[in-house]
From TrEMBL:
Gene label: Mgf
Localization terms from the record: Secreted
Pfam families documented for this protein: GCSF
This protein's name: MGF factor
InterPro entries linked: 4_helix_cytokine-like_core, GCSF/MGF, IL-6/GCSF/MGF, IL6/GCSF/MGF_CS
Transmembrane annotation, as ranges: none
Secreted among keywords: yes
One of the record's GO molecular function terms: granulocyte colony-stimulating factor receptor binding
Signal peptide: 1-21
Swiss-Prot/TrEMBL GO biological process terms: immune response; positive regulation of myeloid cell differentiation
A GO-annotated cellular component: extracellular region
PROSITE patterns named among the record's database cross-references: INTERLEUKIN_6
Amino acid sequence: AAVPTGMLALLGTLLWAPWWALDGAPLAELSGDQDFQLFLHKNLEFTRKIKGDVAALQRVVCDTFQLCKEEELLLVRQDLGITQAPLEQCHSRTFQAEACFSQIRDGLRAYHGSLAAVLELLPGHAGLVETLQLDTANLSSNIQQQMEDLGLATVTYPTEGSGPLPAFSSHFHHQVGGFFILANFQRFLETAYRALRHLACL
């Protein structure tokens, strides 16, 4: 079913606003679309699960390699070419539902690929990494399907560094690369989660 134009306009108004400003937003238009609300609530839970699995892997990297604090590794990071998948369309003044959902979907696909480096790094935790990859792919597919169901146009944004993973010059660089892939993914998920949560609270 197509989404009424008014609903898309309301989505835009809400998501570019600062998060603190959303609490007083008008609720009537969005709350009426039960399918959209069900999608948001289901994928909030899914995103929360993925965040928990990323956090578990971050603890493994900390325990195994003593790589725990980002500020201690920033100099090494500059050599690795690992970038954060963008999500600025989820809170920009020119917000469009298509753009925000497209960036979440594209970012999930990029991190799904990046997790291959984490899998190589932590063979003893392959089950958890593979579950995370599967969940990441499924959440991306859910968002793609919902966009199609809502009649939203698919937009593909070029993501920096979304090509092949960097060739790590040493095992230590591989370890630090894995650390930053997980740290970036966790930040990405936090932003995506906030966007979904505030829509679901309407």
